[in-house]
Amino acid sequence: MTQKRKRVRITPPTAAVAGRVRDLRQRRGWSAAELAARCADNGLDGFNRSVLANIESGRRSYVTVTEWLTLAYVLDVAPVHLLLPTEVDEDVTEDLYAICPDVFLPIPQAREWVRGGYPPAAVDPRRYFSEVPREEFKAPQPTAEQQVEHSERLAQYRDLKDRVFPPGHAAETRDTEQRRRRTEERENGVDDGER
C-alpha cells in the first residue's frame, strides 16, 4: 500500500494579490494596460502597464496598501478578496497563507482573521477583539463541542446548586424577609397606609 505524499502550499500575500488581480483582470477581459489606466484614472499616479505586469509576474515583490485598495476598487471586489485566495486547493494536504514570513494559517482562518473574527493561536483574544468598534462586534460563535461542554458544566452547576439550596429555598427566604420587615414596621408604628 503506497502512502500519499503530503503536499503543502504556502501562499505569500503579494503572490495572492498578484494571482487574484491577474485572474480578475482576465475574467473582465481587460488588458494590463487597460487595468493600469483605470487605476491611474482613480488617482494611482505612476501605476502603468509595466508596474502591473511586474506585480502579476512576481518580478515585483510588494504591493503597496494604496495599490491594493485601488485595484480592489477598480476591479469591483472587497479588498479581502484580493488579499487572500478565495478557494482552497483540494489537491494539497494543507493550503496555508503566510500572515507573517514565518507564521501560517489555513486559508479559511486567515480570511476570518483579516475580517476581524478570528484571533490566531499566539494572539491574546481580549486584545484582538478590544479594537473592534462596539457596533461591529459579533461574539465568536461557539462550536458544537463547546456548546455541549457548556451544557454539561451548566447541568453540573445546577445539580450542585439544588443540593446546596433545594428548590423553593430562595422563595422561602424572600417570604421570611418580607414577614420580618412587616413585623418591624408594625412595631415601629408604620401602618400599611403610610407606605
Walkthrough of the structure:
Helix content is 53%, strand content 8%. It has 195 residues and is mainly α. It has two domains: 11-86 and 111-140, 434 Repressor (Amino-terminal Domain) (Orthogonal Bundle), CATH 1.10.260; 144-187, no CATH class. Helix 2 (32-41) crosses helix 3 (49-57). The longest helix is centred in the C-terminal third of the chain and has 21 residues, at 144-164.
The SS-based structural class is: mainly alpha
CATH topology of the largest domain: 434 Repressor (Amino-terminal Domain)
Percent in helix: 40-55%
Beta-sheet strand percentage? 5-15%
Strand arrangement within the widest β-sheet reads: 1-2-3
Shape: elongated
Unreliably modeled segments = none
CATH class of the largest domain: Mainly Alpha
The overall strand count is 3
Largest sheet: 3 strands, mixed
Q: Quickly count the helices.
A: 9
Please state the CA-atom Rg, rounded to the nearest Å.
30 Å
